[in-house]
Design goal:
The protein is of the alpha/beta class. It is built from six helices and five strands; from the N terminus they run E-H-E-H-E-H-E-H-E-H-H. Strand 1, helix 1 and strand 2 form a beta-alpha-beta unit.
């Protein structure tokens, strides 16, 4: 499985640690983020990863900025993307099981690296449950068509 990862200047160190962690877990990583701590716009990197997920160039995406909010907002503007900001593992797991989230976001200024790893692991280990949740995901996706 190939994971796209993106980040802004606030998350260079965390992005590199999470990318290495993903590789340890056996995932292929495509890096769409910056390696510079010079101020840049998170929207650019959120869009890059989201477009790669939507085009199926990668299977899933992980985004990291200062809070996870701005970069996820940008990603969610891309058709077909369901980016969830998660600051703990339970929400990450449920975002996959109930919302079929295809992009995970979190904040390098909000959580530490060990929590980030726990979130990533919970999210990647979870599977979409379908059923009643599929109906709700379909409703969310239909909003894009309006």
């Amino acid at each position: 499985m190939k994971i796209g990862i993106g980040n802004d200047h606030a998350a260079v160190v965390m992005k590199n640690e999470i990318a290495a962690y993903l590789e340890e877990l056996g995932y292929e990583v495509a890096d769409f983020g910056t390696d510079s701590e010079t101020s840049c716009c998170y929207a650019e990197y959120g869009e890059k990863v989201a477009r790669a997920v939507a085009a199926k160039d990668v299977d899933l995406g992980i985004l990291i900025c200062g809070t996870g909010v701005g970069i996820s907002l940008a990603a969610n503007k891309v058709k077909g993307i369901r980016a969830a900001v998660c600051s703990e593992p339970c929400t990450a797991r449920l975002s996959r099981q109930h919302n079929n989230a295809n992009v995970l976001a979190f904040g390098a200024r909000i959580i530490g690296i060990e929590t980030a790893k726990e979130i990533v692991k919970a999210w990647l280990d979870a599977e979409f449950e379908g059923g009643r949740h599929q109906t709700r995901v379909d409703m969310i996706m239909a909003i894009e068509e309006k």
